[in-house]
Amino acid sequence: MKCRNYLVIALMSITLIALELSWTRIFSAEFFYTFAFLVLSLAILGLGFGALALRLLPLLNRESMLGVYLSLTGLMAIIGPILVFKIGLDFSQLFSNWGMIGKFLVTVILLSSAFFWGGIGLAMLFKRNHEDMPRLYMADLVGAGVGVVAIIWLMNTFGTPAATFLIAFPILIAALLTSKGAMKAVPIVLALAVVWLCPKAPGLLEVEGQDRAPVIYKHWDAMAKIKVYDFNGYYRGIEIDNTANSPIPPFDGDFNYDDTTSNDWSINVANLIDRFDSCVFLSLGAGGGMDVLQGLAEQAAEVHAVEVNPHINHMMQHGDPDGYIDFDPPAEDTTVQEEPEVDSAGQAVAQQPPPYVPNFRDSTGAIITSDKYSGNIYNDPRVIVVSEDARTYVKRFENKFDVIYSLSSNTWAALASGSFALAENYLFTTEAFIDYWNCLSDSGFLSMEHQVYMPRLVSELTDALEILGVEEPTDHFAIYDMPNARRKLLLVSKQPLTEEIVASAYGPLEAGGAYSKYLLYPAADSLKDNLINRIVQNGWEGIEDAPVDLSPCTDDRPFVAQLGLWKNLSWERFDKVGKFADFGGFPLSKVIILIILGVVILIVLPINLIPYFLKGDKLKAVPWLYFFTIGMAFMMVEVVLIQKYALFIGASIYCMATVLLTLLVASGIGSRFSQSFSHRTAFFGIVGWILLDALVFPFVTGGLSGLTLVPRIMATALLLFPLGFFMGMPFPKGTRRVGELIDWGFAVNGAASVLGATLVVLVAFSYGFAAALILGAVLYLVAYMLMSAKSSW
């Protein structure tokens, strides 16, 4: 019987954590990551509500009903996301349309229902077998770790939509094991429904809408949702998570034709490449290969194509020649939708046509439409293809690259760090500029473009050059504006910039035309008051009228996309809130965090006090606070570590898998042996290791940054395992004291987990990861003091 309980709990946990991760991937792509954060943070509250329901309604506590609860969990795991996409939820109207608010509430209820029924099942098993909690909790945590690996494998093998249905199988097996009589048919029928739904999954789990152009290829794995568009034969483009775009240039692979296109690059770095006899060129976020093609066409001796998404590199290396992509456009064309531009309120506005891409032509002047569409350039012997986060890659080099080129790189578009993570971006921090500087050759250049982040990038760059001890740092960079192309350019030089380089780096400065460009710094007298020039001349601290956050981001606080300011919060602007609102200065991410905190504090926590007003045994105040505290602390530490180690491992699915798997499995082992360690050893082990992670380990990982991926993963696991081992002990230690009241303790713990995971992001926004970890350590100290108050239990 005990072995069956362990297996059932493990199977339940596999499905529940996998649902959290797969739903994060789906809703981040279809609704944008900030809204996915909002929906799933509230949905996961269902786990605690399920446990509380068991405490409030004793009739639910019947062993014969366990199979029913698990079948209901499986049912809602299958139909919940389908119904959400049928509702027609539009987050851009969430704050201005009561009907949309109603749809949002229905969405939360649908998604939370799977966790609700699962919470009842887990709480029932914990309550009935509380004396065996160290092993039961181990099964829960280890099962969750297996679920992390399982869902990543399923998403990469069968695609994210199908994986979302397939991951229901473990809990359906658990339902089959626990169902009685004719009820065993229910999980079998649901399993058959999963098999039937899987081929239809991509169409069921997708927002209906008009594509920007005919879609000739789709791929959706654990890393990102990828579409390949054909823009009427003009060029093709890769779209990542329905947000980030990268053009694929048409090219036949012949560099020997009469080149009339060298001046047609949207951002022309030929003048920079030509300054070197044997240029080593690095593309940060190579995407569809436009940067790579420019490097090759301008005779770079070595081109490093670094792209965090491995499937994009696979397409560029093997897709065209192997026929991996069907390049025949669909019979029916669709109207091209324009790429979103953001106004000061963060709202999408009317767009110009897509940015110009060079027309590569053959000797007759015809546009090239070769089967090898991009000319097989990624298999050129000069190209080094790297599937890795750019920051982790450049840290392995010193004085290596002559030209580093970055065109609108955004790791947040492809990030999937779990439902509680918000877009950290280590490409754009003060330390990132230090790394770029160090890997430049003695006369090297960094060219970085970004439409939105430039004011913040300038703040970071000036800090970086001061830290590096560069004499006259303002002589080493220039900033350009290309208004017609909606681009801002940052040029950094290892040597002081001359007037000649500034004037010709991207071709001649000009006031009109499609490629008009002028200097924001050093600025002409008529432009002295522009924001960029003011930051350079006076520093960002004294500028109070800026529409966005100018404070420099660091590796400890890498939230460059969170540009919103509290001063911009007004009821009038809620009517215009869209997914890009933060880019215009509206504090969308912070507002969403406050909504979640408000729901938990004003609604969920008071509901968890209801049992005090009913008959029956009750938790005393100290154990209630104990389970609340360890729930907050565990999730605070977990969320920060997932995001913090993204710098060392790389901002990819490997980081999430490594951190979660290590913490969960180590915590499970720690739970199993929790009774062998004193309370003091357990809690001080946690606090001591957290402080090491906050204050010491950044120097350790910095020293190991030259390692390749597998050794970095192994090093991360070694650094995290002891912490996870001790973090698995507080919950079973508390359970030993409260006995059957653990269902209530589990409910409080679940609510506190969401509160802690959300609050810690707000702390990290303001004070950084180290401060957030230290707050987690303080909470564990509070839990230790509560545990030590024996008479109050």
What is the strand and helix layout of this fold?
Elements: H1 2-31, H2 33-43, H3 45-56, H4 66-87, H5 98-128, H6 133-158, H7 160-166, H8 169-178, H9 185-197, H10 201-204, E1 215-220, E2 225-230, E3 236-240, E4 244-248, H11 270-273, E5 280-284, H12 290-297, E6 302-307, H13 310-319, E7 341-342, E8 348-349, E9 383-387, H14 390-394, E10 401-407, H15 430-439, E11 440-449, H16 454-467, E12 477-482, E13 487-493, H17 499-504, E14 518-521, H18 531-538, H19 571-574, H20 588-607, H21 621-644, H22 646-649, H23 653-672, H24 679-695, H25 697-703, H26 709-727, H27 730-738, H28 742-767, H29 769-788
Parallel strand pairs: 5-6, 5-10, 6-9, 10-11
Antiparallel strand pairs: 1-2, 2-3, 3-4, 7-8, 11-13, 12-13, 12-14
Helix pairs in contact: 1-2, 1-5, 1-6, 1-7, 1-8, 2-5, 2-20, 3-5, 3-28, 4-5, 4-8, 4-9, 5-28, 6-7, 6-23, 8-9, 15-16, 16-18, 20-28, 21-23, 21-27, 21-28, 21-29, 23-26, 24-26, 24-29, 28-29
